[in-house]
Design a protein that fits this description.
Elements: H1 5-15, H2 19-25, E1 27-32, E2 39-43, E3 48-53, H3 57-65, E4 69-71, H4 79-85, H5 100-110, E5 118-119, H6 120-126, H7 133-141, E6 154-155, H8 168-177, H9 182-190, E7 195-198, E8 203-205, E9 220-223, H10 226-231, E10 235-236
Parallel strand pairs: 1-4, 5-6, 8-10
Antiparallel strand pairs: 1-2, 2-3, 7-8, 7-9
This protein binds a DNA duplex (13 and 13 nucleotides) through helix 6, helix 7 and strand 6.
DNA sequence: AGGAGGGCTTCTA
DNA sequence: GTAGAAGCCCTCC
């Protein structure tokens, strides 16, 4: 037997690496509640890296990140509120694994406020690739951190909600939970109205822009295209920037 | 290495 | 209304 304390600690190190090292190599994970049910969330020292719904979490994580996963006893500070509200408020994300295009797209998506929606084409323009509309869809399909990067707020230009990583039903539930009036949006889309203008301010907005929601009915005018609104003398809202996606 | 094909779209006929 | 192709990025072969 050897009771030298130094040797005993060295032996311990051989079996179990110190916490700091392990945390740099491995990711932690935990199951947390969300508006669409329980989610599995993984994070590294840099921030939250992966949000997953349903079965196959650890397999999907390994396939994607190729690093070990260890259970945690509590979520990172602010994670649960961020999932509930769709606002990060300081919560860090680890998006290191992603390509530049995908990071640009996710950054553009962060600009869509809670309770509002924007078209895929708007995201493409904001990401600096106005023609990459289809590729934006692909990038969002691979969004590793849904809810935290609110890709559920990106909808089709024709008014349909479009697809979603966790399925269209989850997209709908999330938007309703944020207070988006989907019935009204649908009504507008049926009339081919995708922009709302106010003749008191002379400004034209996306229908879910908080500025558009305050237009009184008597002063509200709907337009199918931004060009039509401009011809009628309206200028694009500086908050929701409908001019970003189309000429 | 390089091309084909696919994906949360969108525009056109 | 809907089918088809354009279009861009990524993955895989």
């Amino acid at each position: 037997m050897n009771d030298d304390p130094l040797l005993a600690r060295l032996a311990g190190l051989a079996v179990e690496p110190p916490d700091g090292l392990l945390d740099r190599i491995a990711a932690r994970w935990i199951a947390v509640p969300s508006p669409i049910g329980e989610l599995s969330v993984a994070w590294t020292a840099r921030g939250v890296a992966y949000v997953h719904q349903g079965d196959g979490f650890s397999g999907a994580f390994r396939a994607r990140f190729g690093r070990p996963l260890m259970p945690a006893t509590r979520p990172p500070a602010g994670l649960v509120p961020a999932l509930r509200t769709g606002r990060l408020s300081g919560l860090a994300l680890d998006l290191e694994e992603l390509g530049e295009f995908q990071r640009d797209v996710l950054r553009a998506v962060q600009a869509v406020p809670r309770g509002e929606v924007r078209p895929y084409a708007w995201i493409a323009a904001r990401a600096g690739r106005p023609g990459a509309v289809r590729a934006v869809g692909t990038a969002l399909a691979r969004n590793p951190v849904p809810l935290l990067v609110p890709c559920h707020r990106v909808t089709r230009s024709d008014g349909a909600l479009g697809e979603y990583v966790f399925g269209p039903a989850a997209k709908q539930r999330l938007l309703l939970a944020e207070g988006v009036d989907l019935g009204r949006l649908d009504g507008l889309a049926k009339e081919r109205v995708f922009y709302l203008a106010s003749d008191t301010t002379g400004v034209v907005c996306f229908p879910t822009c908080h500025n558009a929601r305050r237009i009184t009915p008597a002063h509200r005018h709907g337009f199918r295209t931004l060009g039509a609104a401009r011809t009628a003398g309206y200028r694009p809202c500086r908050t929701c920037r409908p001019d970003l996606q189309a000429a």
